[in-house]
Every structure is written in C-alpha cells, then in structure tokens.
Task: structure prediction
Amino acid sequence: MNSIRFANLRAEMARHKLKIEDLAEVLGLNRVTVGYKLSGKNSLLLHEAFIIKNTFFPDKDVIYLFEELYKETIKEVS
Result:
C-alpha cells in the first residue's frame, strides 16, 4: 500500500500549517495511530473523516479530502 494517502487532505493540511498532531488531538488519538490511518496501515473511520473535515476544513467536501477512500469504496460496491 502506498504510504502517501489522502493527497488532497495533506495538501490542505500544508496550506493551513496543520500537523498530524493537530488531527490526533481533535480525534482523541495519539499521533502514531493517526499517522497509521493516514498512511492506510489502519482504517480511517467515517466519523473520524467528518470530525477532521468539520473541525479544520468546513468549506471543503469530505469526498475531496478523502478521495482515495471514496474511490476504493465505489470499487467495492460496483
């Protein structure tokens, strides 16, 4: 599995100068766990994606931020 996932999320994080630690804090998780979720080693849960979106990027679409996860889900359903 590619270690760079959620390219749009990571680009937005860079624009807003956010770190994984910032996401970890609002999710109530540690930095390593969130790093694993963002790299695909652990699953990112739907409610976690919405917490990130609503907290940091309320003007962005959740599908835009987590495009890879959305595409994977569509393939599984098809």
Notes: The helical segments are 7-15, 20-27, 31-39, 46-56, 62-65, 67-77.
